[in-house]
Amino acid sequence: MIKPSFDKIFMNLAEELSKRSHCIKAQVGAVLSKDTRIISIGYNGPPSGTHNCDEEWPDKGCARDSKGSCSLALHAEQNAILYAVKNGAYLDGATLYTTLSPCLPCARLIYSAGIVQVFYRHSYAEYKGLLEDEGVSFLQKFGVKTSRI
Questions:
Q1: DSSP conformation class of 45
Q2: Element (H or E) spanning 99, and its range?
Q3: CA 141 → CA 87, 88, 100, 101, 105, distances in Å?
Q4: pLDDT tens-digit readout, 28-87
Q5: Do 29 and 21 form a contact (C-beta atoms < 8 A)?
Q6: Which residues are catalytic?
Q7: Who's near 44: CB < 8 A, 6+ residues apart?
Q8: How many whole angstroms separate alpha carbon 85 and alpha carbon 122?
Q9: What backbone phi and psi angles, to 5 degrees, belong to 105?
Q10: What predicted TM-score, i.e. pTM, was given to this entire model?
Q11: Residue 19 dihedral angles phi and psi, to the nearest 5°
């Protein structure tokens, strides 16, 4: 019997978590792990206790900010990191699995949290129509290993 790698298991879990998102524009999931153990999970959506976009604004989603992004939601990576920190997890040396490569603000948070490796499935630049995955470039520049799988 062939056993799946932890990378495959965690990326598949991130895909499944993305289905929990209430965003009507994009569904993104994330898993934080260390030493083959899950530290935290997350998916994009509004902060707990606020409005769920698909319930409050089912036709068009929440209001957009000046850059055309959701004005309410946290990204999946942000949710996973914030939940981990809120619960006292130590993220130094952790690995992040995310269904969409990190945007630049998330990349800065990932680096600052001490996460050393990021696996992603889809390109944020391709999704947004940008020339470059700025978040991936930032992480690579500062020594965080990144891989698209």
A1: B
A2: strand 95-100
A3: 30, 28, 19, 15, 15
A4: 999 999 999 999 999 998 887 877 777 777 777 777 777 667 767 899 999 999 999 999
A5: yes
A6: 77
A7: 18, 21, 23, 26, 27, 28, 73, 74, 75, 76, 79
A8: 26
A9: -60, -40
A10: 0.92
A11: -70, -10
Nearest to 98 by CA among 5, 22, 17: 17
pLDDT in tens, 94-120: 999 999 999 999 999 999 999 999 999
Per-residue DSSP letters for 123-149?
Answer: -HHHHHT-SS-HHHHHHHHTT-EEEE-
- What are 33's two structure tokens? 């792990």
**Structure-block tokens of residue 9:** 């298991």
Length of the chain: 149
Tokens describing residue 95: 């690995």
Q: Do β-strands 117-122 and 145-148 pair in parallel, antiparallel, or remain unpaired?
A: parallel
Q: Mind listing the pLDDT tens digit for each residue in 70-97?
A: 767 899 999 999 999 999 999 999 999 9
